[in-house]
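so the lab meeting is tmrw and i was supposed to have these ready like two days ago... anyway. pasting both below. for each one the top line is the aa sequence and the line under it is the structure tokens. i havent really looked at them closely yet so no promises
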Amino acid sequence: MWVDLRFLSRNWLKTLVTTLITPVLYLLAFGYGLGQGITVEGYSYLQFVIPGIAALTAMTTSFNAAGMKLHVDRLFYRCFDETLMSPVSFFSIILGKTLIGVVRGLMSTVALLVACFVFSPLTSVGVLFWLTLVSTCFVFSFLGVLVALIAKSHQDMNVFMSLVILPMSFLSGTFFSLSQVPEALRVVLSLSPLTHASFCLRASALGQPYPWLSLGVLLGFGVGFFALCFAALRRRNL
């Protein structure tokens, strides 16, 4: 964790710019381009889509920051085995690898929100918004660590991102309301943790009734991913 923070402190501007390019492009293309004059659930499309893009930014940044670094350490530098041999508990290892994803996810999402406030000061954030955002960063950091622990090659990581992360980015209610899709597809999309993160962030930002059930499901995903990380470490250490 300390090594990752030192690297981040020396490269924070480059890291921030590279992680913000994609969400800012989404904001400009969907929010200001295609969304002009469109209302969704009684809100302008820009108001509707900003919480979704915030959830998407938290997911991709946390997953990549936690997962890719560990993946490279494990398969390229092969230095992760030294960490396993050290007198450090599995809990501390998982938490340490996860926290750098949480830090970078929060940093990128806050920067995106600052940019959003400049162009659209209508979005408000409160305690529940920050609670959901931190939870989202933890959930996807745990997922990144889990995938990095079980991936057997660099291709496995790319396959997971293409088959899971990319579809989740576009289909989990980030850019459109799930009330517009068939019931069967809505049930399938409810299995995505990003769906529940989008629900909670949007409700707290737009002043809607907060979906506590979705927050519970999101936290459940986090607990499940952490348990699977623990199991993956135990299996590697046998």
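ok protien two:
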Amino acid sequence: MAGRVIVITSGKGGVGKTTTTANLGVALAQEGRRVVVVDADIGLRNLDVVLGLENRIVYDLVDVVEGNCKLKAALIRDKRVDNLALLPAAQTRGKDAVTPEQMRDLVAQLQEEFDYVLVDSPAGIDHGFHTAVAGASEALIVTTPEVAAVRDADRVIGLLESKEIYEPRLIINRIRPRMVRRGDMMEVGDVMEILAIPLVGIVPDDEAIIVTTNRGEPAVLDGRSRAGQAFRNIASRLEGHEVPFLELEEGGLMARLRRLMRGSSAAS
């Protein structure tokens, strides 16, 4: 059976698409799935850095479509996680170096070998976006709870419908509960009401993810990272499992109850 092709997109830059792609790729591979992550941000690649694979690039996506190498020669296998591969973008070419038709053909080849093809879309809605979504049948919309990001995400949802991708799912990234309580950040419910698509994950703002990203170590490899746990939960939901949403605050109701129960046990 051909693999699932999922584009990770947003419209606005800087909302965490590439980090999301890397972490979901690792998490799905950890569940035993064969996964390839494709960096479609030609000219501004970063997925290789987030995965810590930047020093192993020999060929890239453009080399493949131009016939300079075989597809297998351009795939970089992650030595830390079985079943995970990266197809990097070219760094010195423009976004028009690959056409939507070429991307569609490339993705069709990858579907034959992998259970998941995760395509990291560039920001914006120009040629790069149209190339990235070509060949995808599913989409994950990543947004932060900010007005500008949500407005751009809404625009992208409309464009996806024109590409016959009708049921995108939503990931709200970098949410800060304290700012939400103060009214300085949009609530999850507000974002969902505006975008009106199913929610597949909420990722809390986590300083640890900045550290792990700079080290080329996706947060899902860190068992203590709350963001990493959120991404593992999203991967499980993509697999069809029912997983409760992560409690956003460590001081939330369930955490307070757990502390109270531990205190009662100690007293008895």
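from a quick look at the 2nd one: DSSP finds twelve helices and eight strands in the chain. The chain has a mean pLDDT of 90. will dig more after coffe
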